[in-house]
Amino acid sequence: MDYHKDRFEDFSLLVFDENKLVAVVPANRVGAELHSHQGLTYGGLVVEKITKLQEFISIFESVCVYLKPNFKKVYLKTLPAIYTQNFADELLYVMFLKEAKLYRRDTLSVIDYQQDIAISSKRKYEIRKGKKHNLQIKQTNDFSEFWNEILIPNLQNKHNTKPVHSLEEITRLQTYFPENIKQYNVCFEGKIIGGTTVFETDNVVHIQYISSNELRSKTGSLDFLFDFLIDKYAAEKRFFDFGISNENNGRTLNEGLLYWKESFGAKTVVQDFYELDLT
Q: 229 in a domain, yes or no?
């Protein structure tokens, strides 16, 4: 989290049982609110895999007691099941016990490599376009070409926004985790026309950014690229996570984006967000 520490007032917690560290809560403070760290995609209460449910409940109670004098509300992100090494729904049960409010639910589009993958005829047609145009795919640690020529202009022109990570931030973050963050560009006649940034965990390859220029419809650039990536990671990972297609706290779906992901065979996994009133 160090690369963007200037954006947040860090309030991460370490929980000890006497001298033994038993839990970590990555978090930041916004006034009288504690948030699962807003600079991280996933959050919650991180414990050892040997932690039993009753212990988890006790740890969470201790965190609430500690926070209550100075905080009114706690906002917690859950960890989607595909990212856990073991079953880990303790937080969901505690949120039920605490009568916490479910205020957001995002939908991740995920391919499970242990299931048959049904790619639509439309995607196959676009993939053949890419082959016909002799597209090339390049893996690189230089994010500047994709950021400056594709991603930033697209986000600015279509959504009047910027990437969550600046070019400097994603470059620095990749130097911290060189084996986990990778950039794949797709090129036509030697020039970049699209690309994607992937984050790898033990079980999952997660797509962070997807973007292409106006040649996408002519060349099938992104379909060609993702056909390559889905095939590449089939032998290395259990899940291929396209990420969310949600807006408005999960209540609005970007139907076009969702359709594209699902036509590669992706199915839905949810991530829940809870509001806990400490008063």
A: yes
Does residue 146 share a domain with residue 67? no
Backbone angles phi, psi at 9, to 5 degrees: -90, 95
Residue 253: inside a domain: no
Q: Look up the domain containing 174 and give its range.
A: 115-237
DSSP per-residue letters across 27-95: EEEETTEEEE-TTSS--S-EE-TT--HHHHHHHHHHHHHHHTTT-SEEEEEPPPGGG-SS---HHHHHH
What's the whole-model pTM score? 0.93
Give the Cα separation of 102 and 177 in Å (integer).
Answer: 33
Asked if residue 153 belongs to a domain, the reply is: yes
CA 57 from chain centre, in angstroms, equals 27
Please answer whether residues 171 and 140 qualify as being in contact, where contact means their C-beta atoms are separated by less than 8 angstroms.
Answer: no
How far apart (Å, rounded) are the C-alpha atoms in residues 205 and 238? Answer: 8
CATH number of the CATH domain containing 64: 3.40.630.30
Q: What is the pLDDT of residues 248-272, one digit of tens each?
A: 999 999 999 999 999 999 999 999 9
Helix 53-67, helix 90-97: angle, nearest 10: 60
Q: What is the pLDDT of residue 1?
A: 59
